[in-house]
Amino acid sequence: MRIGEVAAKAGVSVRALRYYEEQDLLHSTRNRGGQRQYTADAVERVRLIRRLYSAGLPSSIVREVLSFAEAGGASPELVGLLTAERDRLDRQMTDLRDARDRLHACITEAHRDGGPERPSGDGSPRDGRNRGAASGTRRRNTLRE
Q1: What is the pLDDT of residues 26-56, one digit of tens each?
Q2: Percent helix, strand, coil in the chain (nearest 5)?
Q3: What angle do CA 13, 17, 21 make, to 5 degrees?
């Protein structure tokens, strides 16, 4: 299967496939014309690579997971590796929530010191507020005072 066909079937760009090869996640052969040729299982492998990346795994871990998958399943080593990555992501999420909370406190303080306008929600995109550029400018100016 040629590179464009794999890309289309897997829902990724040709450039992504080349990157996966550079990262030693995907392998191809070359035909006489120098074009990449992939086996039929390349599409499923690319889909697995995408799922692993979307789970937040770096290339080095994806490479290890793929080698375990090729060996036939979930060994204790694979489960340990994935558990460690999940724990790493949990720590990152906690750090991000803490940073967001500190930022929200700064915004709340700026509104308290700068005038009557106060945030009506928690400041997240989920709270339904959509402030325009003018209020964003006011907030920046308030923070400088």
Answers
A1: 999 999 999 999 999 999 999 999 999 998 8
A2: 65, 5, 30
A3: 160
Q: Which of 3, 32, 34 is nearest to 17 (CA)?
A: 3
Check: CB of residue 107 under 8 Å from CB of residue 135: no
**What are the Cα distances from residue 83, in Å, to 44, 89, 96?**
23, 10, 20
> In 26-121, where does DSSP find H-type helix?
42-54, 59-71, 76-114
CA 7 to chain centre: 20
Task: Determine the average pLDDT of the residues in 91-105.
Answer: 96
Q: How far is CA 5 from CA 10, 11, 19, 39, 61, in A?
A: 8, 10, 16, 11, 27
| pTM of structure | 0.62
